[in-house]
Design goal:
The protein is α/β, with parallel strands linked by helices. 43% of the residues lie in helices and 15% in strands. The chain is globular and about 35 Å long. The two termini are 16 Å apart. The mean pLDDT is 95.
């Protein structure tokens, strides 16, 4: 399944909509996620952001050998996008493959 994390944008056809990091993480843990697209700002930073998912992924890849799906960022927050892209690069290095 393709998973789309966002609080405002319309969900693309064929994607499963999520609003919070823990929803995405629960789906990732099923092993059924084939692609993941993340927004950063979700309306409540105390509840988490798209970056929260990437931090979880980085830890899982490093400690459990978790195999991440292809990842992309669709956030309009320029500075957060850079931080998220750096996290994706780190996950890719740990997973030893392009994401």
């Amino acid at each position: 399944m393709k998973v789309f994390l966002d609080d405002e944008r319309a969900t693309p056809d064929g994607w499963v909509r999520t609003y919070w990091p823990e929803e995405v993480i629960a789906l990732l843990e099923t092993g059924q996620v084939t692609e993941l697209s993340l927004d950063h700002d979700l309306g409540d930073d105390a509840h988490g952001t798209g970056y929260t998912v990437l931090l979880w992924l980085e830890e899982q890849v490093a400690t459990r050998g978790f195999v991440p799906p292809p990842l992309r960022v669709h956030s309009a927050n320029a500075s957060a996008r850079l931080k998220m892209e750096a996290a994706i690069a780190s996950v890719a290095r740990l997973a030893r493959r392009d994401l």
